[in-house]
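User: I'm new to structure prediction. If I give you an amino acid sequence, what do you actually give back? Let's try with this one:
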Amino acid sequence: MRHSSGPACRAWAAHRVRPLNALVAQFLRDWRIALRSRHEMTTPLMFFAVVVMLFPLAISPEPEQLAAIAPGVIWVLALLASLLSLEGLFKRDFSDGSLEQMVLSAEPLFLAVVGKLLAHWCAASLPLVIFAPIAALALSLPLEALSTLLASLLLGTPTVACLGAVGAALTVSLGRGGMLLALIVMPLYIPVLIFGTSATSFAVAGLSVAGPLAWLAVLAGLSLTLAPFAVSAAIRMACEE
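Assistant: Good question. You get back a string of structure tokens that encode the predicted 3D arrangement of the chain. For your 241 residues, that looks like this:
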């Protein structure tokens, strides 16, 4: 009995591990590409940093005024910075035929999409999250609100990446779809912007932040569950055109 079940168990385990290997391979491939194209990683971060530093000069250096607008400024800039890296998310793979190979592969397409989304979030969003405390201090955000700001960004940026990927997949076959991409994804970002800003503002005011953070977690769960399938469908349509 033991000898007859052993090969079956190993075959089942191999069947389970193989798709996971495909996800990891896609993540590592896109991560290496992002490291080689460092301007794609640094441009959103530089935009975020430069504009944050301009606000005290443009509005007022008074800490009270800066602290009042800091949550909204950081979140709006995080959303705008994310747009800078979206257009190239699938465009390169579409141009060189890699996207079509992903569609024709025997492995499930949504696993490759998950790998690309993870690499995109690590390359484009994670540096913004890491830099956010410095930006918050530059805008005189109280120290007690920093943890809430980080929590809101960690919960909100995956949703931003997933929604942006849907828009990028829908416009990948267009020659210059940057403006259309922005028009598609910006309205979808509004709930994330509202809850992310509200959570940090509540922390500054000493109110409970459980509600906004819970909604951000719900949005993140929905986007991480549904977006890979929506992106896969959009990629298939683009490759069939």
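You can read the tokens as a compact description of the fold. Here is one thing that stands out. Residues 1-5, 7-17 have pLDDT under 50 and may be disordered.
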